[in-house]
Amino acid sequence: MIEAAYVEATNAQNGIGLIKLMGRYSGFIARNAALANGKVDICLVPELPFELNGPKGLYESILARVKEQGHCVVVVAEGAEEGLINPNEQITKNPRRDDSNNIIFDDIGKFLKDDIVKYAKDNHQVSLTLKYIDPTYAIRSVPSNAVDTIMCAKLAQNAVHGAMAGYTGFSVGIVRNSVCWIPITTLIKLGTNRLSIYDRIW
After folding, report:
1. pTM of the full predicted structure?
2. d(Cα 27, Cα 195) in Å, to the nearest integer?
3. In sequence order, what DSSP letters do the residues of 88-156 get, joined into one string?
4. Is the domain of 21 the same as that of 75?
5. 45 and 29 together in one domain
6. Which domain holds residue 150?
7. 193 in a domain, yes or no?
8. Are residues 32 and 131 both part of a single domain?
């Protein structure tokens, strides 16, 4: 999807490829996809504080990149709105929750698709050609590779071993390269795994 957006962006005048990926509370998918592709200019994740407007805002960063290289590729996690530091820029005006008590954000991808183009025209009299791609859950609808298949087999086998040993209320996971039985209560206490924007990978 990022490769397609890159082709669209580089084959248009002042082209922008905008891709929205899964990631309501954390940006692991957006970050890893951007790193794996290598053609992403800007990656927005929920953990990253940012603003839309202003001299160091997202819009000015996009326009600077377009001016410099003729195009810009932006990856945004679906929950990136959580990183907005200016309360006046909030996209979701009436927050709601789903049946699992998760926040339902308004669609940041569709919002940015229109707002980036409007900002460039209103503030810089620049016409942008923006292509928006939202693969939704198609990114996890592909066959697993060999490494993933082997890991899933190990997890499944050990889940059965744990149940046959009489354990309940546990999950199976990889901890320091070993398959472990982890109590559900421990997982709940740990909360949501978030990426760190201070680590070397970011």
Report:
1. 0.85
2. 7
3. GG-S-SS-EE-TTS-EE---HHHHHHHHHHHHHHHHH----EEEEE--GGGGG-S---HHHHHHHHHHH
4. yes
5. yes
6. 146-188
7. no
8. yes
Q: What is d(CA 91, CA 85) in angstroms, rounded to the nearest whole number?
A: 12
The whole-angstrom separation of Cα 201 and Cα 1 is: 22
Is residue 76 situated within a structural domain? yes
Question: Hey, what are 103's tokens?
Answer: 């926040």
Question: Which pLDDT tens digit goes with each residue over 67-115?
Answer: 999 999 999 999 999 999 999 999 998 888 888 888 888 999 999 999 9
Which among 109, 140, 171 is the end of a domain?
Answer: 140
Amino acid at 72: C
Same-domain pairing of 91 and 152: no
Average pLDDT value for residue range 6-29: 95
Parallel/antiparallel/unpaired status of strands 15-21 and 71-77: parallel
Give the pair of three-digit tokens for residue 120: 């460039």
